Amino acid sequence: MRFGLQARFLGVLAVVAVIAVASVVVLRKQQLAHDAAISAYAHASIHAQLTQALQRRGAAIIGASADSLANPLYYFDLNQIGEKLRTLLKEPDVEYAIVFDAKGRILQDGSFEVDRFGVPMEDAFAVGARDAKSPHVQWSAQGMDIAAPIKIGAERIGGVRLGFSLKTLQSREADAQRGMHAMLQTASDRYLTTAGLMVSLIGLILIAIAWLVGRGLVHPIRLLAAAAQRMAAGDYSTSPLDTARHDEMGDLFRAFDKMREGVDRQDRQIRQAAYTDSLTGLPNRLAFREMVDRALPIATEGDELALLFIDLDEFKRVNDFLGHDAGDEVLIRFAERLRAALRDEASTGEVARFGGDEFVVLLHGRELRPQAERLAQAIIESLQRPMSAATRTVHLAVSIGIAVAPTHADDAMRLLKNGDIAMYRAKLAGKGRWCVFHPSMDQDADRLLRLENELREAWSRGELQLLYQPIHALSDGRMHGVEALLRWAHPTEGQVDPDVFIPIAEKTGLIDVLGRQVLASACADASGWKRRDAAADSEANRPYVAVNLSARQLRSPELVEAVRQALDTTGLEPWQLHLEITETTVMLDEPSIRLILHELRALGVRIWLDDFGTGFSGLNHLRQIPVDGVKIDRSFISDITVDPDDLALTSSIISLAHSLGILVIAEGVETREQLDLLRTHGCDFVQGFVYSSALTSEEILRRFQG
User: Fold this and answer.
1) Are 580 and 610 in contact (CB under 8 A)?
2) Residue 442: CA count within 13 A, CB half-sphere
3) What angle do CA 242, 246, 249 make, to 5 degrees?
4) I want to staple 523 with a disulfide (CB 3.0 to 4.6 A). Which of 184, 219, 220, 572 is the partner?
5) What is the pairing mode between strands 629-632 and 136-139?
């Protein structure tokens, strides 16, 4: 039997058919592998993007919530906390919102009854949420739990938890996966039909099919994978896919592109929330840091960046006295004035809210220091006009620090730090002013930080000492009392000025501890003072001691008990203890302060209004607050012999006080001429170097018994 041409041809056809079938089988296996890879990769990418988006959203919400809940939690304002939590519960996918204290006990869960109030959290996420030192995310099959600590300064006072449902995420993920699977299956079915026809064709057709497969399937899959990788990296801006194709791959491309647009839109919304201050609408701290990072390279190429670090002076008093709603209103008004000043004084610039009552302005250009100084002065002058908040007129001032890059800093962190240092120097210089950074300020800032750390142990090391300045009656010239003055004898710095360490103590909260220690020591010293020839414990025979109270102490609910304990422990008569409060402390008529003053007077303690005349409180406050006397500030006394205005003001204060039945002490009396003028105008007591400087307790006892 011959193996002829036909047989050979048939053989060739058979071989070609086998090759074609084998080729189709191989291509089919490759296609299935590609489909599986696409499905797995797309599923992982979609899952990662959706979970990351949810986590970023949760972090943005929890961060803003922790900041906004700090003051309500600090003042234990459960109603305001509840309102904020109920607002959070309205957010999409939020299933629960909990605020807890530092021990993990539930304080508020957004309900009106709060049935779980005080109950420790005992769920699977409780320990991680309670111990979180920063935003902490925990996952389960049903949801995401994110928690963040709530802090006042460096002190952690509690935390907030949010629970997000994964139902929406899982639904979106499942929809996208089903759509992708359906499209891949359609493409696979059509490919098999085409492959069946190709098997009947000869090698050229098989080669053509291979070419078509390469161009029509493999390349688009690679484009799809590359687009998915860019999305995984956070780039949603453009799509290289040919969405105009009218086939299954085109459907897949269009579905993928719609998914990209949806994720991009959601990402922009999350970024908008993460980069914008919700109260003022200004860029927030994170956005501003990125502004500085983007602008710094320009500063290294010849241009400059000028940073204005702005802090509202005494803004906490607005929140404390008028409430946080009024404080928010003031911040919004100030942001508007800040924008207006920037428009009027700077051609280019950006403003942001850095946090709390801190704002920042960034200018860029050439020779910016004069422009920055003019802008700072314009901002200060803009606040000379009072603001209206909560039906009250509010007078505020700002302290501004200026730092210029690259002169003062070459990176964002140092530029912000130096601006902050210059702002703090402006505050030390008297507030309501601006200051340009100088390298020497960095050393001063390090010194203040070192003093802050050393002040914490200064009392236990015996470095802090109480001295007493005598207070004499002008009627008989005798010493009737003393004012307790705290002095710090530093082992290396020598005598540290009280104007330096007292603000540090108030800023860090150490004033609470030091205040109790000073009160107890002053009462103990005064209990041993008595005239040698005194037969009775009367005011004429035993001197009083005056102790200064800070605004922070006066707002403490523990003050009255601390005073009562000091009197009981030392045996000091209540009328021997005089407590001095500054005029500015009571200017805004805080009801709680007046209540505490009434409770102190009920103990028999005397109340004096210190630095009178500097706070503009006037007759209205003297009528409303329970005080026994006023102390005329030394700034009015120093020039009364040469300045008719100071003399007239001093005389008016004395007459005003006497008309209300209260006594008057003049501070800072240094000359006999001042003494004679004050006596002529009816002043009751004087205090100053004209009689004596500050003395130790032993010296006071010897002088009193002399």
Assistant:
1) yes
2) 10
3) 60
4) 572
5) unpaired
Q: What digits encode the pLDDT tens for the residues 134-178?
A: 899 998 888 899 999 999 888 889 999 999 888 888 888 888 888
DSSP collapsed to 3 states, 504-530:
HHHHHCHHHHHHHHHHHHHHHHHCCCC
**Pairing assessment for the beta strands 494-496 and 544-548 based on DSSP bridges:** unpaired
Residue 189, CA distances (Å) to 193, 196, 237 in order? 7, 11, 33
Three-state DSSP state, 443 = helix
- Residues 383 and 398: beta-carbon distance below 8 Å: yes
Alpha carbons within 13 angstroms on the beta-carbon side of residue 132 total 27
- Report pLDDT digits (tens) over 594-612: 788 889 999 999 999 887 7
- Would you call 62 helix, strand, or coil by DSSP? helix
H/E stretch holding 285 reads helix 285-299
Q: Which amino acid is at 88?
A: L
| pLDDT tens profile 190-223 | 777 776 666 666 666 656 666 666 667 777 777 7
Please report, for residues 393, 589, 602, 609, 628, the alpha-carbon distance to residue 623 in angstroms, rounded to integers and kept in the order given. 20, 12, 18, 12, 11
**Helix (H), strand (E) at residue 392:** strand 392-394
Other beta carbons within 10 Å of 251: 17
Tell me how many helices (H) and strands (E) the chain has. 23, 21
The candidate with the shortest Cα–Cα distance to 696, out of 462, 502, 465, 464, is: 465
Q: Provide the residue type at 32 as one letter.
A: L
d(CA 673, CA 654): 18
Least Cα distance to 666 among 644, 634, 692, 697 occurs for 634
Cβ(571)–Cβ(542) under 8 Å?
no
The DSSP secondary structure of 566-594, one letter per residue, reads HHHHH---GGGEEEEEEGGGGTT--HHHH
Instruction: Let me know if 546 is exposed, middle or buried by CB neighbors in 10 A (0-12, 13-18, 19+).
Output: buried
Amino acid identity at 404: V
- 3-state helix, strand, coil split of the chain in percent (to 5) is 55, 20, 25
Q: In whole angstroms, what is the distance from residue 171 CA to residue 98 CA?
A: 26
Half-sphere exposure of 470 (CA within 13 A, CB side): 22
DSSP label at 217?
A: I
Residue 653: both structure tokens together: 């204060």
Confidence of residue 467 (pLDDT cuts 50, 70, 90): very high
Question: Using an 8 Å Cβ cutoff, are 415 and 302 in contact?
Answer: no
CB 267 within 8 A of CB 53: yes
Closest CA relative to residue 304, chosen from 345, 344, 363, 376: 363
d(CA 550, CA 510): 11
State the angle between helix axes of 167-199 and 5-74 in degrees (0 to 180), rounded to the nearest 10: 170
Of 232, 312, 255, 254, the C-alpha closest to 280 is: 312
DSSP 276: B
- Measured in whole angstroms, how far is the alpha carbon of residue 539 from the centre of its chain? 49
Dmax (CA) of the chain: 154
Structure tokens at 344: 């009027």
With tokens 């085409």, the residue in question is 194
- HEC profile of 94-150: EEEEEEEECCCEEEECCCCCCCCCCCECCCCCHHHHHCCCCCEEEECCCEEEEEEEE
Distance, CA of 414 to CA of 397 (rounded, Å): 26
